[in-house]
Amino acid sequence: MLIALATTLVTAAIWLQLVYTDARRMQVDATILLLEQVEKMAREGETVLASLNALDHTRCDRATLVAMRKALYFSTYIKDIGFYEQDLLTCTTGLGSIAQPIRQGPADYTTPSGYRVWTDAQLLLFERTHPVLLIRQGRFNVVMERMQFTWMDRPMMKWELVFRHGEQLTNVSGQPGIYRPDDHKLANILPLSGNFQHQLCAPGYPRYCAATRLGWGDILSSHGVPLTLTLPVSLLLGSLGCASTLLVLKRRMSMRPRLRRGLASGAFYWLYQPIVDLQSGHVVGCEVLSRFRDDYGPLPPDQFIPTLGKIGLSWQLTSRMIRSTLAELERESALPAGFRVSFNVFPQDIVGDAIQMLGDIPEFRRSRFTIALEITEDEYLDDSRAQDHLHALKELGIHIAIDDFGTGYSNLHLLRQLPCDVLKIDRSFVMDMEEHRIKSSLIPHIVEIARQLQLSLVAEGVENAPQRQALLDMGVGYGQGMAFGMAMSAGALGRAVRPTDRAAGETTDELRIAPAAG
């Protein structure tokens, strides 16, 4: 009897764990799917509005209505399109010309790109009004149904979609008050209420954020957990539960769940690799390197960094890294003002809107250091949005460094268009120097490119004194690598900056450009 009771209790506990795991997986998936739909809707709205405004129509005539209806026909989420004259809505695809033009009230919010949004507008269609989402730019608006989010309405889950502008939040859809603006974690438990919260922001449109909330009572009632279990069923479910538990543990140990939990639990930490003046040996800056360790052990950067980009968590890592490291380095009084702190950023954050939120980070605004962003040379730099964002970052005083130069999408014409300050020579070039391989023979050409474009040069992977001297002789001014110290803590970095470095005032603002050859 005791064995049956024990088996029943164990089986019930395993069953509850499986039910909880399934509900939480559904919650996370629903949050991600909601934001994916938001991104698709926003992207479609931007594309249609841009194409219509480019036609430069000034009044609602037949040509204007034809263009609007053509755009509507090829749209997935847009249900109506309107046209404005002197700030009055004069025609729509659904109603045609409006006898009494309509003046709309103030928008609920305006995006940084200038799109005005009404979250609960009323669309008159077939003598009935429908609650809609209305987006306007220039002379046109697009209308999308709020009903497109109703698939999120589930008995056991509450949810909210919000738009963040500064310290303010605007409810776009769902139940107001679910999203918690003071909580930057991806997943957390609210112990007082017995609820489970999950929050996430859209990777491509990071001002749109979603929150979902589950309660134990709702989870149990939704899954209909049996209150009594007979001994044979308990034994059977116990066996199945053991197998299921192994699957759950395997899932918990897989990389993607580990990374999501790691962002919430502090499994990420950062080290600092010194950047050194090859001539004087002074430490003039550092590169911030991401590391990961949780209860299952460490993960190497070349595995977790690409995975973070694929699952849409790149900006969450980057913003947390910038906040944490700048706060930590600020406490190191040995580091002088203007000390260069360099961060690697994901390509999708440069192309998307996420990087625009850098200026909202308090630690960045208050920092006494010179901030540099390292970007890899790739096809995405051809994107006009990426170039616009880089120029905007430059106006904030941020230095732009091209990382691993010479190994990727090398394009000298494109390089001339970018507001970059530094070229970083990939370690593979430096490693080949002592054996005089073909790759190392390209370093003088890189030095000449840097000289022509008035850029500084930093060589990666410098491991010994002969490499340092050879790089100096070629005209490379700065280096990093094991010859100057491995990646270290903030305290060790502060001790590595000698008093003579601080007296010399060596900062990134004064990094020398590559000298003329010869």
UniProtKB/TrEMBL annotation:
Its main location: membrane. It is found in: Cell membrane. Pfam families: CSS-motif (PF12792), EAL (PF00563). Gene3D superfamilies: EAL domain. It is a multi-pass membrane protein. Transmembrane segments: none annotated. It comes from the Bacteria. GO terms for molecular function: cyclic-guanylate-specific phosphodiesterase activity. It catalyses: 3',3'-c-di-GMP + H2O = 5'-phosphoguanylyl(3'->5')guanosine + H(+). Residues 252-501 form the EAL domain. Its EC number is 3.1.4.52. Keywords: c-di-GMP, Cell membrane, Hydrolase, Membrane, Transmembrane, Transmembrane helix. PANTHER family: CYCLIC DI-GMP PHOSPHODIESTERASE PDED-RELATED (PTHR33121:SF79), CYCLIC DI-GMP PHOSPHODIESTERASE PDEF (PTHR33121). This is cyclic-guanylate-specific phosphodiesterase.
